[in-house]
Design brief:
47% of the residues are buried. The protein has 263 residues and is an alpha/beta fold. The structure holds 2'-monophosphoadenosine-5'-diphosphate. 2'-monophosphoadenosine-5'-diphosphate binds next to helix 6.
């Protein structure tokens, strides 16, 4: 048996087990591979991961709050993971732990078109923002970063590139990406973020990494204005597909993963 898992704290809400189990079944690998959720606190993370190869695990996804710890304990890092400073995918190969980051590429694949040359506004300066900023800069977008705590966005831009913005002009961006937690607990995005519900424009792409059962207030407003929207589930699916392909070396069944992730 090749075991896989997602490690998080908490992890009960994760859609990854349903999504990956459906994908493994679709690929005819349901008997040889399995995918489970493992809740592990930060102080137990490293020991838990180091025990996994001996328990039949071939790899793992890593989610909040373990993405930097995953990078720190790995023997080998992909260049993407190293530059972003976070890993969401671990591969247990022989005696080594390899760390990769599929969040950046998964984000790019979720976009309806190329971001090259587009002006992009990123809201937030946490781990999710780092992957998005890194990916967009690599593709040649013009990146501006707003964060509630400006010192953090300044720090992020010094490290990765892009520039901070204090009062963004919403209508001037081709791409707007919310990487903050706003909306997760039912907060009003138009109260917490520098956006207005009626200031989105046709032709914009608006991405909200927050995911739940319903479209977020942010995406509802963007959609009503004729913008193209991308939700957090699509990004989850795309990053998960890349992880699954790394572990199994088989093309991931995206539609099956989408259907399972949406429940
Ligand atoms: P992640 O790794 O998922 O990006 P994080 O590092 O905890 O998580 O970052 C959360 C982001 O959401 C931060 O940019 C945070 O802003 P601060 O740096 O000012 O804390 C942002 N955030 C959380 N709650 C927010 C709120 N109510 N209004 C605006 N931004 C918020």
């Amino acid at each position: 048996m090749n075991r896989l898992a997602v490690l998080g704290y908490p992890v009960g809400h994760s859609r990854s087990p349903a999504m990956h189990s459906a994908a493994l079944a679709e690929l005819g690998l349901g008997e040889e591979w399995s995918y489970e959720a493992i809740e592990v606190a930060p102080d137990a993370f490293e020991a838990r991961v180091r025990a996994m190869p001996g328990e039949g695990f071939a790899g793992a996804n890593v989610t909040v709050p373990h993405k930097s710890a995953a990078l720190a304990l790995a023997d080998e890092l992909s260049e993407t993971a190293r530059e972003i400073g976070a890993a969401n995918t671990l591969v247990f190969a022989e005696a080594e732990i390899r760390a990769e980051n599929t969040d950046a590429e998964g984000f790019l694949r979720s976009l309806p078109g190329s971001p090259t040359g587009r002006r992009a506004l990123i809201l937030g300066a946490g781990g999710a923002a780092r992957a998005v900023v890194w990916a967009l800069l690599r593709e040649g977008a013009e990146v501006e970063v707003w964060n509630r705590t400006e010192l953090r966005s300044q720090h992020l831009c010094e490290e990765l590139g892009g520039r901070t913005v204090g009062a963004p002009e919403q209508g001037t961006y081709g791409l707007i990406v919310n990487t903050t937690a706003v909306g997760l607990g039912g907060e009003d995005p138009f109260a917490e973020l520098p956006l207005e519900a009626d200031a989105f424009a046709t032709g914009q792409t608006v991405v909200d990494m927050v995911y739940g059962g319903e479209p977020t207030a942010l995406l509802r407003a963007a959609d009503a204005a004729g913008a193209t929207t991308v939700d957090g589930i699509e990004i989850l699916v795309q990053q998960g597909a890349l992880s699954l392909e790394t572990w199994t070396t088989r093309p991931a069944p995206l539609d099956t993963m989408r259907a399972a992730a949406r429940g």
